[in-house]
Design brief:
alpha/beta, 7-stranded mixed β-sheet, 6-stranded parallel β-sheet, 26% strand, disordered N terminus
Length: 419
């Protein structure tokens, strides 16, 4: 006897309405051998599919089950955060490094053991049927992301992804397709969703957009990240954008442009939220030279080498700059030029009225402002929490590429500590 199951779908009114009433809806399932019992002109069949990610979104109860993808700085901070998050449960962890495989995730993240072992077995992790992966490798891998999404597992990420425009431009795929197309197709196959954000780009751009709500019109919007980066102890990160090279080195413009191009995603996201289309995106950049040999304790920069930058990404609409993303990074303050550091994020709106908003981040009470490691932990936390806190709304969303323009306010808020 055949065991294939079918969806039975009522496709017309009239007699079909009576059938809908009797069966409690317009769709139900039958076995193949019973199809002939209800053959009607207003009934059609399709092969039954078990509940996928989209149906799980509608039926979800309890905590959202999350897989952490890597345990670097941001990943470790998110493991710590999820231990106490009222809506999330950590169920698995992926590790790239062979030396991390088989170790307790808590131990890898500097915490007490939590009973979850890191693995590099992707099939085993996807078999967990988690609701979401928090995807934070050093660099995103499109094939890996597609594999996760095709499995029906949603992704939130703070790893160089907001809209995908950066990856479209810089990471050609062997298939010839753009990254955004591949990701969108994977979302449709898996009925899954991807959402990218962070602190900058990410939350600072959202703050800029929200601030425009008070305006009758907006003529120009600038979001600036302005920080002393000497507490960001990652030599490879700064070398990748040209720090430590002589200021006249020919590779510096290319390195600065490539290393900051994820902010192009931010421009496209803001333009979409404001209901405009960018005609062009321009890049401008200046660097500051160290005025003396400087030892930061974790890295040395010689006199005359790059130790500061003022980068501008500019979105053009109607032939004029409309949206700008500025980066003012100072590796200490012994540079020429030496730009003023706001120690935070500044939104400047020209319109009616003009608006200026500054968003600053401080250690919580009781912690020393001179504790560099604590500042680093805070930096990792504010980078990851905008996507972690969005997980419930991402898991409820329709399949596809999501930005903050699609996330309800609940997805942009943090959690109140519960007794």
């Amino acid at each position: 006897m055949a065991t294939t199951r079918y969806d039975v779908i009522v496709v017309s009114s009239g007699p079909g309405a009576r059938l809908r009433d009797v069966c409690g809806g317009g769709t139900w399932q039958v076995r193949e051998h019973r199809r002939e019992l209800i053959e009607r002109p207003y009934v059609r069949y399709r092969k039954f599919s078990p509940p996928g990610a989209e149906q799980r979104k509608e039926e979800h109860m309890g905590k959202y089950r999350v897989i952490e993808w890597t345990t670097g700085g941001v990943g470790s901070a998110m493991v710590a955060a999820m231990r106490h998050h009222p809506d999330l449960e950590l169920v698995g962890c992926y590790a790239y490094s062979p030396e991390k495989v088989g170790k307790d995730v808590g131990t890898l993240c500097g915490l007490e053991p939590i009973g979850i072992t890191a693995t590099n077995d992707v099939d085993a992790l996807l078999a967990l049927k988690a609701d979401c992966v928090n995807y934070v490798p050093v660099w995103p891998n499109i094939d890996e992301m597609c594999r996760i999404l095709e499995s029906g597992t949603n992704i939130v990420t703070a790893a160089s992804w907001i809209t995908g425009h950066k990856l479209d431009a810089e990471y050609p795929h062997p298939s010839g397709k753009k990254a955004r197309q591949l990701i969108a197709e994977a979302c449709q196959r898996g009925r899954s969703t991807i959402y990218g954000s962070g602190m900058s780009p990410g939350l600072d751009n959202i703050l800029g957009l929200v601030s425009t709500s008070a305006c009758t019109h907006v003529d120009h919007l600038t979001v600036t990240e302005s920080v002393d980066v000497s507490c960001h102890h990652s030599v490879p990160t700064w070398e990748s954008v040209g720090y430590g090279l002589p200021v006249d080195h020919p590779d510096i413009p290319r390195l600065m442009k490539t290393g900051t191009s994820v902010f192009v995603d931010a421009l496209y996201m803001m333009a979409d939220a404001l209901g405009v289309e960018l005609e062009d995106v321009r890049f401008e950049n200046d660097v500051g030279a160290a005025t003396e040999d400087t030892d930061f304790g974790w890295w040395q920069i010689k006199k005359g080498c790059v130790a500061a930058q003022f980068t501008r990404w500019i979105g053009i609409v109607n032939g004029k700059p409309l949206i700008e993303m500025h980066l003012v990074y100072q590796m200490g303050f012994k540079t020429d030029p030496c730009w003023k550091v706001e120690h935070g994020y500044v939104v400047a709106i020209k319109g009616y009225p003009d608006i200026k908003v500054k968003y600053s981040i401080f250690p919580p009470r009781g912690l020393s402002a001179k504790d560099v490691k604590e500042y680093q932990r805070i930096g990792m936390s504010v980078t990851g929490m905008p996507v972690i806190n969005a997980i419930p709304e991402v898991c409820k969303a329709k399949p596809g590429i999501l930005t903050c323009a699609d996330i309800p306010l609940r997805g942009l808020t943090g959690c109140v500590r519960r007794a």
